[in-house]
Amino acid sequence: MRYMAANAWVGGGAPAFAQALAARRASLQLAFQSAAEQIARRIRQLGGQARVPTFSTSVSVAAAQPSSFSGMDVTAMGRLVADLQRAGQELPQAGQRLAAELSALCISSPSARQVGDAGVWAEEQVGDLRQRLAVIQQTHDIGTASQATAAFGLFGGHAPDANGVGKLTVAAAGGDVAALKALVDLQRTGRDTTLAGRLSVWWRQLGPLAQGQLMNASPSLVGSLNGLPAVDRDRANRAYLAAQKAAIPLEIQRLRASSVGLGAETKKLSDQMAGIRDPYQKYGLSQRLERLRESSARLEEAIKEQELKMRQLVAVEKGMARGGQNGRPSALLLQLELGGLGKTIVSFGNPDEADNVAVYVPGTGTNLEGFGGADSERAAVTWDQANRFALTKKVASIAWLGYEAPQWGEKLLVYDETPLLPFAAWKGGPLLAGFADGLHAAHRPTREARLTILGHSYGSTTVGDAAQLRPHSFADQLIFAGSPGGSARKAKELGVGSVWVGEAPNDLVGDVGTLVPFLGADPSEPRFGARQFYVPDTGDFAGNFKAHSSYWDDESDSLANIGYLIDGKYGDLVPFPEPPVSPSSSSHPAPSPHLPAAMSAGGPSPTPHPSPTPTGE
To answer: Which segments show compositional bias classed as Low complexity (predicted)?
Structure first.
C-alpha cells in the first residue's frame, strides 16, 4: 500500500488495483482485530485479564509532488511484486495457524479464512504483474518507466475499457488495418482520456519487428497515433511522405492520359451528333455526351486534388528544412494528412526528451499548402528564442496544424466554417487535447518537462477549447497572442494555472472578442484574469493587419517575451514602458497610446512585476 500511495498519480488500472489492495488490507486488519477481541473475551471468561492491541495502521509515505510528466520507479514496483508474492506464501500459513489457535480456545470465527483469502488474492496478482513487469524491465533498462507504462503496462489488467481499446490494439497488432483506423477515429473524438497512454504502452510492448510490420503496412495511420514515441511517428510519416511523393506524379500522369482519352471521345461524339437529324437518335447521343463531360469534369477535379497534394508535400518539406539550420535540431514529422486543407505536425527537437516543450497553434487562413511559410518559421524561431535563454535545457518547438483552421474569403459567410464562430475550434479542440495526451504519455520519465501551448489568433480559441476538455492536465502554461477569444469567460475556466496574453496595441484581431462574443471573452481584458506580457506597437496602420503577424518579428520584445515565458523566466520579461507624462497633466497622467486598450481601461500596471508562480485567476 505504501508503494501505491507513493505513486498515487498513476491512472489507468492503478486506482482499481490500489482500491482492491486497500480492501484486502482492511479485511486483513479487521480479521486479526476480530480474532484478538474474541481471544481477549475468552481470557476474561476464564478469569484472566487482557487488553486488545490495535491492528489498524496508517499508510504514511513521502510522495514526490506530481508534475505534468511523471514516471514510475521500476525497482520499487519490483519490490511491490516481491512483497505480494511473500504475502501470498505467508498469509495462508498465518491463516492456518490462527485457525488452530482459535480452535484450541474453542472459538468459532471467520477471521482465519479471511487472512488466508488475502494471501490467495495476493498470489493471484503476482503472476500477471510479474509477467508485465518483465516486459517493462526489458524496455526501460534505465530503471524508470512512464506514467502511462505504470498505469496500463503494469496495472493494465485492472484498467476499465469502455471503448474497447484492448480488443482494437490486439487486432491492430495482428495487422488488422481496420482496427488501426478505428483507433485513429476514436482518437479524433478526444473522448477517451486514457487512449494515448494505452497506445504508448501497447506500442512499446509490440517490439521492433511488429512495429516495423505495422509501419510498412499503414505508415500514415501509425504516424498519426498519439502516445507513440516521436522518433517512431517521424519514421512512419517520412515513409508515407516518400511513398506519396513517388505515387502522386504517376497518378497525375494516369489521370491526364484518361482525360485526353475522354476529350478525344467527347469531340468525336460531338462531331458525330452534328450530322444527325433524327431527334430520337440525337437525344440518346446527347445523354451519352453529357455523361462523358461529367466524367471529364470529375477527372479534372481529381487532377487538381493530386496537384494540390503535391504542393502540400513541397510545403511540408520546405517547413521541415528549417530544422538543422542555425543550430536547430532536425525536424520530426509527427503527422501528415494530404488533401483539402491538409494537416501536419512538425517538431523542432524531440518532445519526448525535452525539458521545455512549446506547441504553436496557428489561426485563421492557415492550411497545409502554406505551411512552408510563416507557420513553420514561427515554430522554428520560437525554438531559437527558447533555446537562447535556456542553454542548459533541451527545447522542442512544435508547429501544430492538426486541425482545419477557418478560412477567409467566401468561407467568412459559411455558417459552420466562418472564423467568427467557434465551430472550427470545437472540432479542433478534441484533436489538440488528444495530442497533448500523447505528449504526456510518450515523454521520458527521467526528465521533468514544462509544456507550454501557444495559440495565435483563432488558434487561441482552439487552445481554450482543448484546455477545457482536459482540466488541470492539459498543459503547464497557455500563451495567447493576438487572440479574438479564448473560448472561455474567465482564465480560471481553462484549468491551467499559468495563462498569459500578449496583444499588439494596433492588432485589430485582438479586439474581435469584445465585438463578437461567440469565441469567448477577450483574454486581454482585465476581467478575464490572464497575465499580460508586453508586445510593442509596430507603428503600422491597424487596417493592414501587419501587427497581427508581428509577434514573432526578429529581435522583437514580443518574441523575447515568448521565449522567456516558455523557459519560465518570468523575472526576465521585457516590461511594459512607462506611460509618458505631459508637463500640463495632473498627478494622474493619461494612458499611453502605446499601451493595450485593456491596460488603459484599468487593467494591470503598465510595468507589471511578473510572479514566478502566475495564476490563471
So the answer is: 583-604
